[in-house]
Design brief:
The complex is a heterodimer.
Chain A (H helix, E strand, L loop, with lengths): L5 E8 L7 H4 L38 E3 L12 H8 L4 E4 L4 H9 L3 E4 L2 H13 L4 E5 L4 E3 L5 E3 L4 H9 L3 H6 L2 H14 L9
Parallel strand pairs in A: 1-2, 2-3, 3-4
Antiparallel strand pairs in A: 1-5, 5-6, 6-7
Chain B lengths: L7 H7 L2 E4 L4 E5 L2 E4 L4 H10 L9 E4 L16 H16 L3 E3 L9 H7 L8 E4 L13 E4 L2 H10 L1 E5 L2 E8 L8 H12 L7 E6 L1 H4 L3 H9 L8 E4 L3 H7 L8 H11 L12 E6 L6 E3 L7 E3 L13 H14 L14 E4 L7 H11 L8 E3 L4 H9 L2 H8 L2 E2 L20 E4 L14 E4 L2 H10 L17
Parallel strand pairs in B: 3-4, 3-6, 4-5, 6-7, 9-10, 9-12, 10-11, 15-16, 15-18, 16-17, 18-19
Antiparallel strand pairs in B: 1-2, 2-8, 13-14
Helix pairs in contact in B: 2-5, 6-8, 12-14, 12-15
The chains are: A alpha/beta, B alpha/beta.
Chain lengths: 199, 473
């Protein structure tokens, strides 16, 4: 996984609430291997005239600034692949679908949660100055908008560590192998019905 | 020793913590891992890393997303779809997993199959690479959807790193009115708290209206927890739960079952358990519901009219409403009961259990559907039971198609699509743009309401039809 430390890039505003993972990656592309180029499937059916991602003024954007409940719906990690392969490294929104946010962190895509008013203001700034850049500093947990104001954001420390270091968490988990083995032994005695008999 | 009162969620969570980190992340043990055809990315990851499945006996593969709803006698025509089904079989075979494949006599939608087989039990942690895994919380399990990287992590370690979610209790007291079902109840909850109203939370559903629900109804409620943004939904296990489980194929038997029940009786929330948020609804206020927009939070009583964006003072929100109305082809002020539909779909992990099919058949018995429609039972056993009761004849005589079990038109990836521009009365869980097919328009509702819409060709208040026998969920 590509580590995420700092990023300065153009940002594209998307004034839509409840962007679900079906919109990010229509279900018919789920059977495609990652090598098929998921970036081409990003928002595939939303690409109508006037869609901000197709506006040349926002070309090369690596940050997406949207509205509440971004990434709700299906657990498909392909929605994150589509964003990452489409060049995005950061999504800013007032709230995220929990599963989407977890998937994003596993793939080096930073989700920044900021208050609804703040995000609406960022979108307005980007609409008024298309192509303007934002700067994200993950170790400092700040996002600086086009107006130069540094906004602090909160992030789970584990998620931050995984993103900054580009960690594979299976390797991290295997450090707890003894605890897992011990849990399994105790649990087999405590709840012997958990392992199902073959029906 | 005195201890703090704990909620159902806290008891299940605490019993599965293997390790904790100073930053608050917990390594949770996973009791059940369900896989469907979409698991190929995750198998690719563990294969690439040379890792094995740590607990094959807790891991079950189910073909449901891509399986055909029509005849299964011939091979699947589309090579890409056929490949999804065979890839799951190959991955399950290679790793020694029980595989409920296309021709298995117990095959079905994973969230219908697992409870039916007695794989879903109270107090378990259950994960699956599918957001509707929240369904299994109906048994008092902690069950939630995960993405492909997490699926690979569970395959390799039988654990998952999680931050302890917040808790929310939604109490629904009172008695649901006639023709008001579990589907209407959960749609009312989502409309009340919003599509992200429970983000970061595990919901416990409580109250007399929840306790009165059958297991089918509870499964419908927990299924749609994710549509309120919840991490999971749970209902305290009780005698309704235990009698459903007893005797099922993979459920504990004999003395082991008794021991399990004894433990399961300790799981319900203690009196005085504290929740981060409490929400209350009165069952008597809930009406048969339909959605008008492209988010489940747009559920309203079927007697309502289409809302007017001009009435919203926030220009961004008004714009978003206009976009939804434009997609749905609706105008502000229209009575929903005047909206004509093009087809119906009765099925999905939300509403494809026997009770759902009975409720739909009760409306359609002796009636003709005036629009085409597809009825897809949730599993082969549901299909057989429905046929033994003659429900298939009711649907076929009404002019609807009777399909083979699977996810079908809820997600449309097996080829069952709502054609562009068409309006579908659907018992599914998501009305997102393009969900049932590019430019398809979805109205969510209960099985009885979808059957009523089939009979009249428009969104219909089922209470206005003469229906003798009522179903519940």
């Amino acid at each position: 996984m590509e580590p995420f430390v700092t990023l300065t890039a153009a940002a594209v505003p998307l004034d839509i609430a409840n962007i679900d993972t079906d919109q990010l990656l229509p279900a018919r592309f789920l059977k495609k291997p990652r090598s098929a180029g998921y970036g081409n499937f990003l928002f595939h059916d939303e690409r109508k005239p006037g869609f901000p991602l197709d506006d040349p003024a926002y070309a090369g954007a690596r940050v997406l600034v949207s509205d509440r409940n971004f990434g709700c719906g299906s657990s498909r990690e392909g929605a994150v692949y589509a964003l990452v392969d489409g060049g995005f490294r950061c999504v800013v929104a007032p709230s995220f679908g929990d599963i989407f946010a977890a998937n994003a962190a596993k793939n080096g895509l930073l989700t920044v949660t900021l208050p609804e008013e703040t995000v609406a203001d960022l979108r307005r700034q980007l609409q008024n100055a298309p192509g303007a850049t934002v700067t994200v500093d993950l170790p400092a947990q700040t996002l600086t908008g086009p107006d130069g104001r540094a906004l602090s954001f909160a992030i789970d420390l584990f998620k931050k560590e995984c993103l900054v270091e580009g960690l594979d968490d299976v390797a991290l988990t295997l450090r707890h192998q003894d605890a897992i083995d011990a849990f399994d032994r105790t649990d087999a005695e405590r709840r012997p019905w958990v392992v199902p008999g073959r029906g | 020793m005195t201890s703090q009162p704990r909620s159902l969620f806290e008891k299940v969570w605490d019993a599965h913590v293997v390790a904790t980190r100073p930053d608050g992340q917990a390594l949770l043990a996973v009791d059940r891992h369900f896989l469907h055809e979409g698991s190929f990315h995750a198998f690719g990851m563990i294969d690439h890393a040379g890792r094995k499945v740590r607990r094959p006996e807790l891991t079950f593969a189910v073909a449901d997303h891509y399986v055909p709803s029509h005849s299964r006698a011939k091979p699947i025509a589309d090579p890409e779809i056929a490949n999804m089904v065979t890839m799951l079989e190959a991955n399950a075979g290679r790793h020694g997993l029980r595989h409920f494949g296309l021709h298995d006599p117990d095959q079905g939608i994973v969230h219908v199959l697992a409870p039916e087989q007695g794989l879903t039990l109270p107090g378990l942690t259950i994960v699956c690479g599918d957001s509707h895994t929240s369904t299994h919380g109906a048994f008092g399990a902690l069950a939630f959807g995960i993405g492909a990287t997490e699926v690979s992590h569970v395959l390799a370690t039988q654990t998952l790193w999680q931050r302890r979610p917040k808790t929310m209790r939604i109490t629904v007291d009172g008695v649901l009115r006639p023709h008001v079902t579990a589907k209407d109840l959960i749609l009312a909850v989502i409309a009340a708290i919003g599509a992200d109203g429970a983000a970061g939370h595990v919901i416990e559903y409580a109250g007399s209206a929840i306790e009165a629900l059958s297991m089918e109804g509870r499964l419908t409620v927990c299924n749609m927890s994710i549509e309120a943004g919840a991490r999971a939904g749970m209902i305290a296990p009780d005698d309704t739960t235990f009698s459903w489980i007893e005797g099922r194929a993979y459920a504990p038997k004999g003395e082991l079952f008794d021991r399990a029940v004894e433990h399961w009786r300790t799981l319900p929330s203690d009196p005085g358990a504290v929740f981060d948020r409490e929400v209350r609804l009165d069952a008597a206020d809930i009406a048969p519901a339909v959605t008008w927009g492209t988010s489940p939070e747009t559920a309203v009583p079927v007697t309502a009219t289409v809302p007017d964006p001009a009435a919203d003072a926030d220009p961004v929100r008004a714009g978003q409403m206009r976009k939804m109305l434009d997609y749905m082809g609706l105008a502000p002020g229209m009575a929903l009961e005047d909206v004509p539909i093009d087809r119906v779909f009765i099925g999905s992990c939300t509403n494809a259990r026997l009770e759902d099919l009975r409720a739909a058949a009760a409306v359609l018995r002796g009636r003709r559907a005036v629009v085409p429609g597809l009825v897809v039972p949730g599993s082969v056993p549901v299909r057989m039971l429905a046929e033994a009761e003659g429900l298939d004849r009711v649907f076929i005589e009404a002019g609807l198609e009777w399909g083979e079990p699977g996810c079908s038109m809820c997600v449309g990836i097996n080829g069952d699509l709502v054609p562009a521009g068409e309006r579908c009365a659907s018992t599914t869980n998501r009305n997102f743009p393009g969900r049932q097919g590019p430019n398809a328009r979805t109205h969510l509702m209960s099985p009885a309401m979808a059957a009523a819409a089939a009979a009249t060709g428009r969104l219909t208040d089922v209470r206005k039809l003469d229906v003798r026998k009522l179903g519940a969920s």
